[in-house]
Structures are given as structure tokens and as C-alpha cells.
Design brief:
alpha/beta; Alkaline Phosphatase, subunit A; nine-stranded mixed β-sheet; three-stranded antiparallel β-sheet; 12 strands; about 35% helix; TAT_signal; DUF1501; DUF1501 domain-containing protein
């Protein structure tokens, strides 16, 4: 999914933003977040969750590969990987050859792979399926994200959940609370508009209506947030250099840069509990192998560098990373050596608290639903597990009463 399409999805979902901030309500929270990080607050004893969204629909069959199943090779003659190229996890499944860093984490028992994750009556629309994943409501459309409802339920401040994406994702939007959002590249003002002019707009006037005063405060916070973010990035570069640990998330992709900011916040002991980052481009309708391998290389380098960096500190060892996409791809390839929109796929869970291994059941390639995989794990089981184990919450409260059987890739909360 390209940036424009992704932005259309977010706008259509009712959460928009510009510059450094996504919503007026998020402005103060993000400023407070970065200000607290500069004061080096005591470590937060709670776990932290990093949600990595792969926009476009990741091809799960060529990510976690059933290399020993002859049907995989028969159904995908042009797209299947030979068994000798696959990074074997066991005698049936293996990782894409571009995921060598994740294979190291697997060997260290810090990578869990949840197989066949999906939801009932799958929808093959990017917008609707991602909306389902981010709201955790497969039955009816709703306007609050599952993390946003947790923010509502805990009366959380905006800095409790932060997105390092261009706009606030729906998953962080609640009915009464929302997370904070900062643009990766910082504030970009139009030509002829400088800090001084925006700063003047941020000065409240005596006796003005409350909404105007709020707007003025938002302008002021916009600049303050941007300055604080830039200072944090400059400090990181000064401390470690461009290849040192402060930026060492393993590459120059946008995901690596987002995770570098997450790492910086974790190491500074900011009070954020949930971070949202993303990587787009997984809508591989043509030339799957080349494009998918490039994306998986970026994903591998960014995730591996981040998890290894987090392992160096006690705060970092409390971080759990969950990687998901809105759907998998069709089992058979198309006429363009690509794959079309499908259904179920693997979810990756990484971190110092994770018990590595395979969870769930790999979908059958002989029992398909109109050419698509049948989900074997409801995605709310994954969400419920991290809500309980990482955030210490009652999963049913934030998943519309869905009864969760926690998956044992994390210790019980």
C-alpha cells in the first residue's frame, strides 16, 4: 500500500493530522512525554508494547514457509522457495531466507510465531480489514481502537500511547482519550511560514473564547514538540554517531528510524506504555519475490537491531513487539508473478519477555476456503494475551467481552 493509499485509509477511519501532531488532544501529551524524558524520570516498572503494522497485506506463506509441504510447491510453482534456501524452524516450517536476524532471535528463544491468525468472515478490502484489526471488532464497524479503549478505561494521558507515524492510527483512538503522534521527519512548515509566525499564533489573548485559546495552545505545543524531538535526535547522534547504538536499529528504512525513536524513549524512561510504528508496501500483486524480499530485509534489520538494543537495559527487556498485517495473500500466484488479497497469516512476537516457539496451527493447504487459508487463531487471542501480560488489563473489557485463552508466549499478567 503506497503512502497516499495508507493516508486515505487513516483519514477515512476518522483520525487525521498534520505536521508533528495528529489531534489537538494529543499535543500536550506528547510535549509532556518528551519533557519528562529529558528529566530522566525513574524507570516505569510496567511492560511496554510496540505494535508494528505491515500495511498492504503481507504474504505469510513466503514469510513463514511450509517448505516440507509438497502442496506449497505445487500450488506456487513460480513463487515457492526450495527447502534448502529456507531458514528451518522445525521439520515443517521455516523463515524466508531474508530473515536471518529473526532466525538468530528464534535460536535465542526471543521470537514467537503465531500461525494462521485471522478473524471470522474475512474481508479482502485493505481499508475494512485493517479497520477490523485496529478496532478488534470483526462483527460491526466501530470508531474506537482496541488500545484507545484501554486508554479510555484507564483514564490515561496521551503520552501513554505514542505513534511515530505520519498520522495517528485508529488503534490509538478512544472515545474519550487518544494517543499522541509525532511525524518522523519533524515539522515541515510551508514556504514563507517560519517559527516566529507560528509562535505568534500560539500566544493566547486575554478574554478570547476557550476554543481559540485551545487552538493557540496547540500551535505553541506544535513548535515545542518539534524542537524537543529534534533535540532528542541530535543528542542521540552526538552520543553514538550514525552507526552507534542510539541509531543502530539495523538500517535506514523508515521502520528502522521509527524504532530508533522508540528505543530512545524507552531508554529515557518516558512513561509511554504502547508505541505504534509501521512499514508499508506489502500489496505485492506483481513481482512478489523481488519486492517482498526487499521489504522483509528492511523488516528483519529494523526488528533485529531494535530487539538486540532493547536487550541491553532492564527497561528494554520489558518491551514486547507484535508484528501483524491486515491479511495474508492468496495461496496461488497470479499472472503477474504476484499474489492477490487473501486471509490468514502469521503474527510475530519478539522481546525479552517472550517465550519463543511456534503457537497455533499452520493452516492446511488441502482444506482451503475458495482458494484462501482458513484461520486457526482468532487475532483477539493475540491482543488479549498482550493486554493481560504486558498491560495488566482485563482483555474482555476492551475486546467487547471476547473470551480470551492467553497464548503462552508471554508469562501471565
Amino acid at each position: 500500500m503506497d503512502a497516499l493509499t495508507r493516508r486515505r485509509f487513516l483519514v477515512a477511519s476518522g483520525v487525521v493530522g498534520g505536521g508533528a501532531l495528529a489531534t489537538t488532544g494529543a499535543a500536550l501529551g506528547l510535549a509532556e512525554l518528551l519533557d519528562k524524558s529529558s528529566r530522566a524520570a525513574p524507570p516505569d516498572p510496567g511492560g511496554k508494547l510496540v505494535l508494528v503494522t505491515l500495511y498492504g497485506g503481507n504474504d505469510g506463506l513466503n514469510t513463514v514457509i511450509p517448505y516440507a509441504d509438497r502442496r506449497y510447491h505445487g500450488l506456487r510453482p513460480e513463487l515457492a522457495y526450495p527447502a534448502e534456501q529456507v531458514l528451518h524452524l522445525d521439520d515443517a516450517l521455516g523463515l524466508n531466507p531474508k530473515l536471518r536476524g529473526l532466525k538468530r532471535l528464534w535460536d535465542a528463544k526471543r521470537l514467537a510465531v503465531v500461525l494462521g491468525v485471522g478473524y471470522p468472515k474475512p474481508d479482502r478490502s485493505h481499508f475494512r480489514s485493517m479497520d477490523i484489526w485496529q478496532t478488534a471488532s470483526p462483527g460491526v464497524p466501530i470508531y474506537s481502537g482496541w488500545v484507545g479503549r484501554w486508554l479510555d478505561g484507564t483514564n490515561a494521558t496521551p503520552e501513554t500511547a505514542v505513534s511515530f507515524e505520519p498520522v495517528l492510527p485508529p488503534l490509538l483512538a478512544g472515545e474519550t482519550r487518544s494517543g499522541a503522534c509525532v511525524s518522523l521527519g519533524g515539522l515541515r512548515l510551508p514556504p514563507g511560514i517560519d517559527d516566529g509566525l507560528v509562535g505568534a499564533l500560539g500566544v493566547a489573548q486575554p478574554g478570547e473564547p476557550a476554543m481559540q485559546a485551545r487552538a493557540a495552545a496547540s500551535y505553541a505545543d506544535l513548535l515545542r514538540v518539534d524542537h524537543l524531538v529534534r533535540h532528542s535526535q541530535e543528542t542521540a547522534r552526538a552520543e553514538s554517531g550514525p552507526s552507534g547504538p542510539a541509531t543502530g536499529t539495523g538500517g535506514s528504512s523508515a521502520l528502522a528510524a521509527q524504532l530508533a525513536l522508540v528505543a530512545r524513549c524507552v531508554e529515557a524512561n518516558v512513561p509511554t506504555r504502547v508505541y505504534s510504528v509501521s512499514l508499508g508496501g506489502f500489496d505485492t500483486h506483481a513481482s512478489l519475490i523481488v519486492g517482498h524480499e526487499l521489504l522483509l530485509t528492511q523488516l528483519d534489520e529494523a526488528l533485529t537491531g531494535f530487539v538486540e538494543r532493547m536487550a541491553r537495559t532492564e527497561a528494554g527487556r520489558q518491551v514486547t513487539v507484535v508484528v501483524y498485517s491486515e491479511f495474508g495473500r492468496r495461496v496461488r500466484g497470479n499472472a503477474s508473478d504476484g499474489t492477490d488479497h487473501g486471509t490468514a497469516g502469521p503474527v510475530l512476537v519478539l522481546g525479552g519477555q517472550v517465550t519463543g516457539g511456534l503457537y497455533g496451527e499452520q493452516p492446511s493447504l488441502s482444506d482451503l476456503d475458495d482458494g484462501d487459508l482458513k484461520a486457526t487463531v482468532d487475532f483477539r487471542q493475540v491482543y488479549g494475551t498482550v493486554l493481560g501480560a504486558v498491560l495488566g488489563a482485563d482483555p474482555a473489557r476492551y475486546l467487547d467481552g471476547f473470551q480470551v485463552t492467553p497464548l503462552p508466549f508471554l508469562p501471565a499478567g
